[in-house]
Task: structure prediction
Amino acid sequence: MRKSLFAVALLLSTMAACKSPFGDIPSSVPLGVVTVAMADAPSGVHTTSPAAYFVDAVNVNIPNSGTSADTCAQLAYPGTGTSAPLSQIDAGTPVIVATTTDTAQLTPRPADVNGYVFYRLPTNNDSITVRPGSTSRVTIPGASNGFHAFNQTFVNADSLALQTIDATPDSTGNLTLQWNPQVGPRASVVVQLIYASGAGLANTQIFCQFTDNGSHAVEARLANLWRAGGAKHVHAYRFLTTIATDGTDQLDVVSQYTTDSTHVLHP
Result:
C-alpha cells in the first residue's frame, strides 16, 4: 500500500481513500513538503500556519493539482487516512515562508504520534497573514548529507466560493456545481457533499475532485444519495501545488483554501 503524505489534514483523511490522480514516487526520493492552508475569513484578513516536513519518500502519492481526476465517489465520512513514518531528512533551520504581507521562520518540532518531525512556527506565535491568490516564497537552508537548499516561489490558492446548491429531495437529474475558478496556474477543487445515510449524525459523503474550471456536474446516481440524506452539509477546498526538483531532491508546496460557507437550499 502506498503511504499518504498529505500534511493538510483534509487531504490526508480523504484523498487516501480515492484512486489517486496524483504522481507516484516509485523509488527513494528526498522529498520536502510545505503546506500553506487558509480558510474563509469574515474579517477579510486571512492567516495561515505553514508547516514543512522532509522525508526519504518511497511509494507515496504526491499531490498534483495539475492532474485532476474529474470524478466523484461515495465514501465514509469523515474517512480515515493511513500515515506510516518514513525516514526523516535534515533540511537545516529555519525554513522561511515569506508572503506578500508577513514572514514565518519554521523550526523542527518533536516527532508527532506518527513519527513525523514537522517544521512549524512557535506555539505562542503560530500564524502569519497571507493573501489568497498571491505569490509567496519558501527558502530552505539545506543541510550537508541532508535535503538540498531551495529558494522557490509559489502561488497561493485563491479564495473559493461555491454558488448556492439546491438539494431538493425530489430532484432526479445531475447536480451541477459552480464556483469561481482560479486565474493562472492550474488548481484543483474538491467538493464533499456530506450527509447522514440514516438517522443521526453525518456518516457518508459524495467526494468529488474536479479540474478548477468553474463548473462540473455530479452524476444523478450519486447526487440523489445526498439529496435524500439527512444532516446535509458542503465542505469544499481548492488546492494548488508547485513542484520543483533539482534532479535529486523534490520540493512540493501545497496551498489550500477551504470553505464551509456554501448555502444549501432545502437541506
In short: Confidence is low (pLDDT under 50) at residues 1-23.
